[in-house]
Amino acid sequence: MGHKRGLDGSYFKPTKDELFAEYQKGMADLMINDSERVLAEKKKIEIDRTEIEIMKQKLELQQKQMIILEHKIDLVATTSKVKNSSKDQTPTN
Known about the structure:
Layout: H1 16-30, H2 35-89
């Protein structure tokens, strides 16, 4: 049949690091003391707050950049109108 190792090669074999990473995900649920769970939740909330603050700062920066671009557009439009009106007022021979 050609099966030297049987079905061993067909099954998932996680490493010790992979197993430990999965264990850590549920470790807080296995503990009697909720302090670890509370600390993990506080840490996640703090990370979320930091990410929100960064997003707020980025939004404010983008809003300021939009205002600058709008002013530039207005300036270009005004300059264009001035040029066109000066061309219209130039006497032709």
